[in-house]
Amino acid sequence: MAKLKVKKKKEEVQKAKDISTVDKNMLVLPPVRMSDDPTPKQVKWINRQRVLVFAARGINHRHRHLMEDIKRLMPHHKTESKMERSKNLYVVNEISEMKNCNKCLLFEGRKMRDLYLWMANVPNGPSAKFLVENIYTMGELKMTGNCLRGSRPLLSFDPQFTKDPHYNLLKELLIQIFGVPKHHPKSQPFFDHVYTFMILDNRIWFRNYQILSEDGALAEIGPRFVLNPVKIFSGSFGGATLWENPKYVSPAKLRQAFSKKAGNKYERRIEKKVMNEATKPETGYPDIEGAEFFKGDPMEKAQDIVVKKENNEDEQIADESDTEIPKEMSKPHFTMKLTKNKPDKAIRRKQLKAKSKAISDQIKKRKQFKKKSVKS
Asked: Ranges of Basic residues compositional bias (predicted)?
């Protein structure tokens, strides 16, 4: 019996020791906590998201400044030197694995004026390609807003992101890329700015605001840019096309349409000039004899014109009474058709129309010749 009692006592002591060790490891929160009290810190860094941000050769200085601004906003980013344009995009997966990154932002330039942005989940996908428009860097804007470097942002999304499936996928991709992980070594443990992603005109508009106070007062920091989605792929930098933007038009085609519109300006001006010459009257003011008409008091001039018209009418009536009207013309059903023949004006108009037609034919021949030369 004594041995059994000793064993029970030993078991109770061990249980008490186990409970004390568990209590030490577990963080027990008080039932009531003041709002001003600091939250207990989580020691572990669980969300280990790392984003590789770099560019391919061919971007200009404004695109490079935008890339640097995005790097400043993301303390969990990693950098890499410029990639050669001749390499295949699948090489980016290997680069990101070497850098121990699971997300990637690749800036790709075309013709030193257009900027494309690739967002990818490495290595399994999906990935999305965007055309970056309306770029304004922090250096250009010089806004009043300011935030601490490395602080975590709040992400604000338009309600339209939840309506369409492709926008829902892009929302998840943006959250994982732009959201700073909690307890990241280079991040600050508080929120003092907001990223807003708004959908307007089938594009995603990005803005960055500083939180001034708890009542919702904001001040813009920058940068500003607009993402025009082009395609969404199932894999990382490739694979099957999950979604394609039907309203997307490449900037090269837009520039080509504008240049065509500007090229036709000269032809329209010549045709307008020819038509003006064809319809131009010989005398602009047939009743006005000279420049002296505009001199003097206008009221007196008007009275003189009225008096002259009345005198002319009286003279015409007197002449008609003096002349004898033939019997055929005195019939009530007879009506005179006074026709003013102006053969000179008709000939002149025909000549000008023929001239305008000849000029338009020459312009058409030039266009056809240009098209043949381009094809050959």
From this structure: 347-356, 364-376
